[in-house]
Specification:
Elements: H1 25-35, E1 40-44, E2 47-50, H2 51-68, E3 76-80, H3 86-96, E4 100-103, H4 110-120, E5 124-128, H5 132-136, E6 146-150, E7 179-182, H6 183-191, E8 212-218, E9 226-231, H7 232-246, E10 256-259, H8 266-277, E11 281-284, H9 291-298, E12 305-308, H10 310-317, E13 332-335, H11 342-352, E14 356-361, E15 368-371, E16 384-385, E17 390-394, E18 407-412, E19 419-420, H12 424-430, E20 437-445, E21 451-455, E22 461-463, E23 466-468, H13 470-478, E24 483-493, E25 497-506, H14 514-522, E26 533-536
Parallel strand pairs: 1-11, 3-4, 3-5, 4-8, 5-6, 6-7, 10-11, 10-12, 12-13, 13-14, 25-26
Antiparallel strand pairs: 1-2, 8-9, 9-19, 14-15, 15-16, 17-18, 18-20, 20-21, 22-23, 24-25
Helix pairs in contact: 1-2, 2-3, 2-6, 7-8, 10-11
Length: 555
């Protein structure tokens, strides 16, 4: 049975002075849609959607999920799409319907998909058509009964850019257990429900602030990912907190933001909601790894806002055609997901004349905790805590340390998650009864209130902004019949910030090579988790009690 663990956390002091302008995320989204209906909300691959079209399509899909699929409030819906126009339509439909969004990385292997879908109890999925073979191999062990498919070219069709009319075409549903329907057809069927309404409405039940909006999966200490439970209150609070920090440099319905980071990542997801709530234009980059295509696109626009990570800033700054881009209107650049280096910050500011505001957060905090004030940044710091966010530095005895002393960052505020989905024990390990979240990151607090990270979670590896937990990779390596022991650590990489390095003790009877190990990992791990370096050792360094000493392998 998929239920929220019994967690009793006192967050009363965190929201006393934070006024909520909306009762839920659906109301925030709908208000933005109605303010400037003819303005462009999204652009991607040369095609656009206005706020009015977003309203029509997301309302139609929401009603399809509620009226035709007959999902109930609180049911989970997975979305496994890259940055295409279909993503915000799908995400907003789920939120407007009062359902729970489960963001899923399109690069996941079947093993990773299976864990997330089974754990979340998702009853429906909106998925890229190319990923269907993976899904179909595991769908029978999940609760998924409705599969809504979308091709990348769907956003290029006239159907995505014309006024909706009812479709006479029905979804393909024979007498089978799982319903399968194309996204465009689902939108058309849902639009027929509101055919007589000038303004499409979603026939949902009341959504409360404490209702779950999102289950955002993050790495687990056991190697299996955990779902952070984020309520409407959590995300609304973080949008308002972020807006307060960035409001002075942005306006309503005039900005052009560049979003190269995937919207299934909580950092990009939250910033996208903030941009949308201010009725601004958001350009989604479908494949930021194609730097030439990215730079060519940037050359056709004059962006005013940009969100990215360290490796992306470095890649763009070194591209031979980056000088063709007009950055004269750029006034806000936000960095998160990985530490910002001095080199990247200096190069970006020299190129664009816009400083980078580095922030800090976690999936468990919706995600933003700290953020440098634009124009007043301290390079190397994660900035100041957002409004109504308490940040302390604790020692091992859970006592606050003296100013300037290193310790673990703990956070308390309205953006802190309700807990981990169906993981009461793991929740109790990181959340105190008073609502303090133990991040595992080591930092110092300066006299001026700014915070600096001095060490990360000791074992976590960050590859291009994505968390890789060694236990998960080690479990896969240890499943190989010819590997006796394995330890995984992060090592510096100019390209991705860090790379995954595997140290292996193999059976003396076999002749394994690096490529064989990499090929083996490809069957079970997302590409960024696969070791890029494999070293064979006679034995691994261990403590007196036999614990593998990863720290000795990092050097």
């Amino acid at each position: 049975m998929n239920t929220l663990p019994a967690i009793h956390i006192n967050n009363s002091n965190n929201t006393d002075h934070l006024s909520f302008k909306h009762e839920n995320l659906a109301e925030l989204i709908e208000q933005a849609m109605h303010k400037h209906p003819s303005n462009t909300a999204y652009q991607c691959l040369g095609h656009t959607l206005s706020f009015e079209e977003m309203n029509q399509k997301s309302a139609a899909l929401a009603n399809y999920l509620l009226e035709i699929v007959q999902l109930k409030a609180g049911d989970r819906v997975a979305i496994q799409l890259p940055n295409l126009l279909q993503y915000p339509i799908a995400a907003f439909a789920v939120l407007r319907a009062g359902l729970v969004l489960v963001n899923t990385n399109p690069l996941y292997t079947t093993r990773e998909m299976r864990h997330q879908f089974v754990d979340s109890g998702a009853k429906a999925i909106i998925i890229l058509t190319e990923l269907l073979p993976k899904l179909e191999s595991i769908v029978q062990v999940t609760d998924i009964k409705t599969i809504i498919t979308s091709q990348a070219i769907d956003q290029l069709t006239t159907k995505m850019n014309t006024k909706l009319t009812p479709s006479t075409k029905r979804s393909t549903q024979e007498r089978v257990e799982v319903r399968k329907v194309a996204l465009l057809d689902a939108i058309y069927q849902g639009s027929a429900i509101n055919l007589s309404d000038a303004n499409p409405k979603v026939h949902r039940k009341k959504i409360n602030l404490d209702d779950i909006a999102l289950i955002q999966y993050t790495g687990g200490t056991t190697g299996l990912s955990r779902g952070a439970i984020l309520s409407h209150k959590n995300i609304l609070a973080n949008i308002e907190q972020t807006n307060q920090r960035l409001n002075d440099v942005t306006e309503i319905a005039t900005e052009l933001f560049i979003t190269p980071l995937p919207l299934y990542h909580v950092y990009a997801f939250l910033l996208n909601l903030w941009v949308f709530s201010k009725c601004n234009n958001n350009i989604l980059i479908a494949d930021p790894r194609d730097l030439t295509g990215f730079v060519n696109l940037l050359s056709t626009v004059k962006p005013t806002g940009f969100c990215g990570i360290n490796t992306l800033f470095i890649g763009l700054c070194h591209h031979p055609k980056i000088s063709d881009v007009d950055f004269s209107q750029l006034k806000l650049t936000v960095s998160g997901g990985a530490a910002l280096t001095t080199d990247a910050s200096n190069k970006w500011q020299k190129l664009t004349r816009c400083s980078i505001s580095e922030g800090y957060g976690l999936s468990e905090t919706s995600p933003v905790v700290c953020l440098n004030p634009p124009g007043k940044e301290q390079l190397g710091s994660i900035g100041l805590p957002l409004i109504h966010t308490q940040v302390q530095i604790w020692n091992e005895n859970e006592q606050e340390v003296a100013l300037g002393e290193p310790g673990e960052i703990v956070v308390k505020g309205p953006q802190v998650m309700q807990g981990y989905w169906q993981q009461l024990e793991e929740t109790e390990q990181v959340l105190s009864q008073e609502g303090w979240l133990k991040t595992g990151d080591i930092a110092v607090k300066q006299a001026d209130g700014f915070f600096r990270i001095v060490d990360r979670k000791k074992d976590m590896i960050i590859v291009s902004g994505f968390n890789v937990y060694p236990n998960e990779v080690e479990n896969i390596l240890m499943s190989h019949p010819d590997i006796i022991e394995a330890a995984v650590v992060g090592q510096r990489s100019d390209k991705t910030g860090e790379l995954v390095a595997a140290y292996i003790v193999k059976s003396n009877k076999v002749n394994l090579c690096q490529q064989e190990i990499i090929n083996y990992c490809r069957t079970a791990l997302t590409p960024y988790k696969i070791p890029k370096k494999v070293v064979f050792l006679e034995e691994l360094p261990k403590s007196a009690i036999g614990k593998i000493l990863r720290r000795e392998l990092r050097h």
